[in-house]
Every structure is written in C-alpha cells, then in structure tokens.
Amino acid sequence: MIKKTLFDKIWDSHVVKKIENGPDVLFIDRHLIHEVTSPVAFLGLKNRRLNVMYPNLTFATADHNTPTINQHLPIKDPLSAKQLRTLKYNTNKHDIVFWGLGHKNNGIVHVIGPESGITLPGTTIVCGDSHTSTHGAFGAVAFGIGTSEVEMVLSTQCIMQPKPKSMRININGKLRDSVTPKDVALFIISKLSTSGATGYFVEYSGNIFSEMSMEGRMTVCNLSIEMGARGGLISPDNKTIEYVKNREYTPKGENLSKAIEYWSKLYTDEGAVFDKEYNFNSSEIEPMVTFGTNPGMGIRISGKIPEIDFKKDSSSSYLKSLRYMGYKIGDKMIGKKVDYVFLGSCTNGRIEDFRTFSKITKGFKKADNVTAWLVPGSHRVLNKIRSEGILEDLEASGFKVREPGCSACLAMNEDKIPAGKYVVSTSNRNFEGRQGPGARTILASPAVAAAAAITGEITDPRNL
Amino acid sequence: MPYEKFTILESSGVPLEIENVDTDQIIPARFLKATERKDFDKNLFRDWRYNQQNKLVKDFVLNDRKYSGKILVAGKNFGSGSSREHAVWAIYDYGFRCVISSFFADIFKNNCLNIGVLPVQISAQFLQLIFDSIKNKPKIKLKVNLVEQEVSIFGIPQKEKFEINPYKKGNMINGYDDIDYLLSMKSEIKNFANKRPF
C-alpha cells in the first residue's frame, strides 16, 4: 500500500480532476468570506451573470475594516461603511449566511470558523485571507486565496491549484517555562526565514504540538504563512474531536459518529516520505521577540540583535530594516522602550491568550507610558472574558477591552499605531507600516506583551 | 476580468533592488476599502513613493524619471505576506505586465497568473546582471519571451530560461482565466459534490 501523509490524504480526496501538466481542480468544502476581498469577486459574478453554486458552503463575517469601539453606532468612514453594506447586499442576494457587526457569531473569520463548527477535520477550507492556514490546527487543508479564486469558489466551489510539496517539522521534548505556542512559531520562522517553506504545506508533529491546546495549535498553524508555507496542519486527535463536538455547524448524531470514524484515519502513515523534514530541540526555544521588519527577524528575548547573516539577507535590506526600527546591530532587546501594546488578531485573540495576559498583569498596574489595545477575536471570546472574571482583573490593572475585529493587526480601521511609535503586538506581521504608517512593530506572545504593558519596556515575563 | 494576452514583451525595466517586499508595501491595507477594481495603481508602493507629509520621495525608483517600462525587477522573495489580490491589481493597473525576481511568494505568484501579470523567476546571478545592466544604462531593453520561456537583455549575450506551468502558460498566451475552465466542467463538479460527506 502507498504510504500517504496526512496532507496527501485530504488533498487527494478533494481532487475533482487532474489536468495533465497543469494544476489540480480542487473541491472546496468550506468557504469563508469577509468585506475586503469579496466585493470584486461578487462583481465578477455579476458581470458574467453567474450565481453562487453552493451558497450553504460559504459563510461571511465583517472583521477587517470594522471599528472596535461603539460598533452599535453608524460607521463614520464612508468607504468602510460602503464595504460593509456591499457585503450585506451580496450575501443577501446570494443567500449566504452573514454574521455582521453585533451578531453573536461575529468576529475575526479565523476565530469564528472553529467556534461555529464550520471548521472540521479532513475538509478543504479557503478564504481570501492568508491566515486561513489557522484552520489547519483541526487537521484540515486550509489556505488563503486571491479574489479571482474567491470568484471561482463562489461560482464553481472549486479552485485550480498545483499540489504543494510536503514538509514536516518535528519538535519533541518539554517546553521551558513561559514559552507559548507563539514563541514556538516565531522560533521556527526565525530558523526557516520568511521564504523557507514557500511551495510547501507543513505538518507539525511531535509531542510539543499534540500537548498544545486547540487554541495553541491554531496560533502555530496561523503563522505557517509567515515562513512562506501555503498552510500548516496537525493531525486531529481526541482534543480536536472534543473541541469540534456540539458546535452549531458540526454534524450531529449518526453523522457525527461517521465523521469521527473518518477523522480517526487522518494521520500520516508510518513510512510516508516528506519532501523536506526539520527537527528542532524544544529546549532551544525561549520567549521570542522580533527586532526587524519581517517575522523571520526574531530572536530570544534575552538576545542581542545579530550581525547580518548573508545566507538570509543582503546587507542593504537588513540595514534598511534596522533603520526603520531605529535599532542597531548588537542592541539588547530587553529594556527597549514600548509605547503601545496590542493583544488580539487571528494569531492571539482567543480566550487562552486573554487568560495568559491577565494572569501576568493581575496585581500590577498598566505602565503610564503605554497605550494598550485589547481586542478579542470574537463575541464568544468577549463573553468568556466577562464570564470568567478576566474583564474585572484587567480593568483593575487599568486595561480596557474593546469590541471584536482585526483592528491594529492590519490597521485598516482607525486603530493605527502612530508613526515612529513602538508596539509590542501579539499579531502576525511586523512589516513596515503594517500597523499604521511609520509604526514600529515587535511581535511577541501574549505573555511578553503583558510584561511590556506593565513595565513599559521589553521585559522577560519570567523576571517579573 | 479579461486581461491583455502575453507572448513577447520588450521593454525597459524598473529596478526595485529590495528583498522580501511584502504586499503591505505594494499596497497598504488602508487603501483596500474600494468595492470595485479602480485606482489601486495610485497607491502602488504608496509609503515608499510618498513620505508622511504626502510629498513625492524623489529617489524612489518609481519616481525616478531615469527608469520606466512595463517590467518590474525586484529582489528575492517578492510579494510575501497578505493574499490581497489588490497588490497585483495595483501592479497591473500601473502599467507593469511582468515582474522579474529570483524568488516569489506563493499566493502572490498565483494571483499574478490569474490576472495577467507574468511572474518570471530567474537565478540570483542573472537577476544581479539585470540590476547592474539597468544601473549602467537605465533605458536598456529587456526581452521576456513567454513562448520560448526565456529572458534576455539587449546587447548582452547571456540569456536565461524560466519555468511556468504549461496550463498557465496557455492561459497567459490566450488571455483565458480559470473560471472559464471550471464553468466548462460544472456537471463533473456537481457529481463530485454529491459524494462529499459534509
């Protein structure tokens, strides 16, 4: 029998047709859409006079371009308001489920998919957003697509893709104190660089990942795209099934039993061969921070900004990046000034992230020089923050919690970090201007963000 | 959306000698609010073309009159980050039909092929030769031959072949897109969908 990887099993079972010397026609089980990358796709349908082929397989939310305060009031920016109106109109016209602002299921697309049971093991999931890789945490083949492809999925429920190569990253052992899934991911990206996994689909394997919560696995898979991979995935296990069970869109009764039987076969066969394989030592991983303008420029928090590695970068690109950040080679990261802290995004905007953050800040006060934006990933997360008493703890420390959305992760709404200011951010990208024109981003875990929010500078959470 | 067919392109190139250019640089998120494909070219490389006071940055390559043409030549790992197709719309609508680099990010490359921008991946050495040639002679012509899958520089003997998926090559040459193909196999898709468990 042919030994197959987890990825092969899912991909191969979704190929409608193989085109000779061309891509595969891949069937899509779940399609998630939002206000920013869908309007031109719907316009394409209109121009070609096409309908949505399977409206029940597409789900819409408003998240990228929405305010995170006073969501009940009309949106001030006319362009943003129009974008939301357009999504409402399009979903209504084509009979697609839409969870707009204020709806109980509303939130960041990659947070609400799993919460609602849309995300299931063994499925193919796409969305016009690169962090669709998040859903791989459930053992799904999930990846970001462009707007032309959104139009393809709407009109035919398929896209055309060459099958990516396969990679496995193995980490076994025990994680050190205060090392979170975010640190594991930033560590891997710092080793592979932002293009190290381009052209590959990554399976994460080893007890480090199997012992992670579903939230932690989502953080790791979310960041797969930051090393260039189209997606990442983890074999489903009991934890996955426990998470998925009893959610709104999860199969019920006999269908669930059948599904579980199928899901239990979703693992990489022993002896299956990957195109590339990496092994890392868990004891090498420490709390991480980035110092440059791409997610591959990460170091352990106690480290110094390294010399140029010519295997990775040219000196001009590396120095341009440090100039933008206002840093020099040899600088220590500990003690660097922090002006803003952002807790949120599809990377770290889940309940576990708020628990981690508030556990550290409890009993301390927010530093006066820090502006903190705490943005839950969804209404469900916000409700849990309230019901678990986290909100009270955070407020006692001087923090406020905003309403759900993508917020300062991409700064499409008014949540922009001002030019020149430093932000410790739990999001996914430290690109120039990503969090506002001229903003300087240091990517880190919720634990490191919490420590920075208290002290007003980069601080090792273990030393508080 | 229909695009101009691509066979052979002869043009000077604009040298963007920077690595890891992500799609947030190509078009920042704050310019993604449109509901139709219009005016994205105006904000191509917005924060590199204009400073924070909205003044032109004179030495940025797109503002430098020495350079012009339909080919953007860029450092390795071009187009990383966000999947926004708006980045490729901005590039196409600005007038570029081809991007040459030694490495492309995956989703960006797909988006290019879907809307008629040819991504040409060549060796780091040949890329450097193109950068150096443009620096010496800014209006030097490059020739991108999709039919032969070959890039050359006028007046310089070196040439290089590049790879492209034969199906995508056919699409670019004929100006087709994938939707036409997928629509033609709708009944096959329906049969397949009927067998899916959930």
Please identify which CATH superfamily of chain B we are dealing with: Aconitase, domain 4
- Tell me the major beta sheet of chain B: 7 strands, mixed
Rg result of chain B: 18 Å
Residue share in β-strands of chain B: 15-25%
Q: What is the level-2 CATH architecture name of chain B?
A: Alpha-Beta Barrel
Helix-strand makeup class of chain A: alpha/beta
Distance between the termini of chain B: 32 Å
**Biggest interface and its residues per chain?**
A-B, 80 and 58 residues
Can I get a quick summary?
By secondary structure, chain A is α/β, with parallel strands linked by helices. Chain A contains 16 helices and 18 strands. Chain A has a 5-stranded parallel β-sheet with strand order 5-4-3-6-7. A 4-stranded parallel β-sheet of chain A has the order 11-10-9-12. Chain A has a 4-stranded parallel β-sheet with strand order 16-15-17-18, covered by helices on one side.
Describe the structure.
The complex is a heterodimer of chains A (464) and B (198). With 464 residues, chain A is an alpha/beta fold. Chain A has three domains: 6-161, Aconitase, domain 3; 165-236 and 267-284, Aconitase, Domain 2; 290-463, Aconitase, domain 3 (2-Layer Sandwich), CATH 3.30.499. Chain A is 31% helix and 16% strand. Chain A contains 16 helices and 18 strands. Chain A has a five-stranded parallel beta sheet with strand order 5-4-3-6-7. A four-stranded parallel beta sheet of chain A has the order 11-10-9-12. In chain A, strands 16-15-17-18 form a four-stranded parallel beta sheet, covered by helices on one side. In chain A, strand 3, helix 2 and strand 4 form a beta-alpha-beta unit. The longest helix of chain A has 16 residues, at 78-93. Chain A is globular and about 55 Å long. With 198 residues, chain B is α/β, with parallel strands linked by helices. Chain B has one domain: Aconitase, domain 4 (Alpha-Beta Barrel). Chain B has helices spanning 23-26, 46-49, 86-94, 106-115, 124-136, 166-174, 178-183, 186-194, and strands at residues 8-16, 71-74, 98-101, 118-121, 141-145, 150-153, 159-161. Chain B has a seven-stranded mixed beta sheet. In chain B, helix 3 (86-94) crosses helix 4 (106-115). The longest helix of chain B has 13 residues, at 124-136. Chain B is globular and about 60 Å long. The two termini of chain B are 32 Å apart. The model of chain B has no long low-confidence stretch (mean pLDDT 96).
